[in-house]
What does this fold into?
Amino acid sequence: MGKKRSWVWEYAKRKGDKAYCQLCDEDKNNEYSCVGGTTGSIIRHLKIMHKVYQPETSTSKRLSSSNNLEEIDTLQDTDSLTNSQSSSSSSNNSFTQPSQHNIIPRKRRRFLTHDNDTDRKCSPERTETIHKALAKLISMNQLPLSFCSSPGFYQFMAVVEPNYKIMKEEALKKRLHFFKSSIEEKIRSDLKAVQSVVCTSDCWSSLAQNSYITITAHALNNDWSRMSFTLTTQEMEERHTALNIADKLENVFSNWEIKDKVTTVITDNAKNVVNAVQLVSNTTNDNISDVTCAAHSLQLSINKALREDSISEILDQSSKLVGHFKHSNLAKQSLLNKQKQLGMPETSLLQSCKTRWNSIFLMLERIFKNRCPISAVMADRSVTSTHIAQKFEISEHQWLKIEALVFLLKPFQVITSLLCGEKHSPTSMVRPLLKKLLDNHLKPQDNDDQSITYFKQTIIFDIKERFNLEWDSKSRVSVRQIASFLDPRYKNLDHEPLFARENIRSSVINLLNNIETDAHNVNTRCEPSLQQSALEFLYGDDVTEVNNLTTEFQNYLAEPQLKFHLNPFDWWKSKENKFPRIGILAKKYLSIPATSVSSERCFSTAGNVVNSKRTSLLTKNVNLLVFLYQNRNLIP
It folds into this structure.
């Protein structure tokens, strides 16, 4: 008996593995798949589009009636089985003949219904928790304010919390301002508890040509722990004159209630900024204005020494060579292949940047380390043409000079990294490190050529002049010298000339005489008490104070000098009770950072906030986002 033809083909025709509906217009897409004779797709089309269903045949009627009879029989059998079981239980017969129709009906399958995620309600408490977490995410990851309204975030929350109502941008700003207020309150509390504050400042222009000024604050708390805060990143619409910058600084100090506590402002060597700091210093109780960024000053000295003609020629040639490998994908990939063949790390060359510290050293060091693979690529004519090879060729004499420059610039890179480290590096380190740099790494050698000799002489002279390392009768004691004496690692002043050491100690004694302490009532005459002896009463407190200060100072001098790699703040934390007055002075001077790198890093953050896609960001929102990110460890 042959296979029965389906009813579908009365309304459709088949060509190979395709079925075509005859009820549709010819200009419509009426082609459907019927691989192997399957009719599912065309049946769905007939039912949905044309309301055509399978006709009811006699066979299907019989099956339907038989199914109904079976259901009746099943119900009867179930009743008879129930009756037989009840009669069996009432009788004492232990065996019952099974009936021919004792059919146990199949139980209907039951499906467990779980609450769908879309039916789960997002409570107000959980909604607020998500709101705060989203605000914290935007603050800590430098995300745009529009992140919560982006399609990707909608899809993400549809999976995580389907019934979460997305927060509007105004509600987000409200929570960000709440974070800012909480952080400001914490910073004010911490700054109020300290005796002195040091600030750093720098100016910067965004991609939208908006000028900003950033101010950071640094201090040591009662536990000698270092604290650093970013106070503000404000737009500066005025010209960058010394008077305008000084007014901006004073306004910020007044708003944060630290005007009487600021001892100095660390900046770069720009003349207008230095003059602004001097104007601010003249309005405070302390006239500390001779401290500039040590790393910036050091880079100025390096750049001056690198201006020698032969050195400039090498730097220019090296920069062109790096540019060739940066712009040629073939040369870059060939360099990586040569490095791999020689068993060297696969690294790209680095380009120097005038505004990036130590970038010249990093460029020369990377070139010198990769001399062999670079030479191999330049000699491969399938990669580098003869014209290009001659244009960027570095001679043997130049390779030797590059090696000498790498050796000379390495100590400067190390000292810059130390002064700009993440951990607070006090200004007390500057003069001792420079002394070691000059004595151990810049001494003239017999095999130095003319350019290297010029480099050493130029940089030695410039460093001594910028940092006032030379001492004469007209010299005055600087802040860095006082800080070095108060640092237990350099208290012996071995890095200073002999005739300068006594002047530094005398200056410290003068500063100690002006210190007032609440704990010891140094400058306050008190009433005689029962604990005083008769001699103490007769001599008076003045003599006692001099003796106490002199003894404290002499005991400090007698203390062994701390090793250079140990933490001076831990030393002072354990010795503060023994030297209370010197400790107060040390806390003031050791809180002064060596560089203004904290402000520089703040502008790196601002550059991530005001990027090429967010140049229209309002300046107040720039300040908000930068403030939250820089102080993210204080976000509640």
